[in-house]
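Researcher: Please predict.
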Amino acid sequence: MSLDLESANRTLGGLRPYPVAVTTVADGRANGLMSLSAGAAAIVPEAPRVTISLTKYNLTHDMVVSSGVFAMHLLANDPDIIDASLAILMGLGGSSGRDGDKVAPFATKPGVTGVPILLDALSYVEGRVVHALDVEESTIFVADVVGAETLREGHRLNVGEAWSKLPPEWIEQYESNHVPQVDSARRNRGLIA
């Protein structure tokens, strides 16, 4: 029996409905990216943990390895803030931090670990890494939550809603930029030479 990739991707994609903005700082430099791989990592209510999975291709990955800190932000989907949410998504998800400062265009404040907190986000948790699991193409980071705040009340932006509101030319550029990241992941897993 062969693997039904369409069913696998449909099931796994259903686990990642909310894009999150991840920010970090290392050696005085801030950076960030968008991720669909984040979640809660503990059931102890008085000691929350957060998990993110970052591909090794991304500068943000290397900076989290170096500093051991990050913030994970949920974006808002309400009419008064949706444009700011889409700007964050396009700014952090549309280019590499190797090409310039991706965080500077956004209103931020320093978190307790020094990571930039995106003030136009819905809410955030800030974490200090306690465990990291190397899974060839990426690293899964588990962090103790050391800071958190609800910045505004509202609804979370889900990936389907976001994609339907993004400019088609941005989506085309994103998909083009995503190819080398996927190729890097394939190489790291030994799927291509």
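Model: The domain at 14-188 is CATH 2.30.110.10 (Pnp Oxidase; Chain A).
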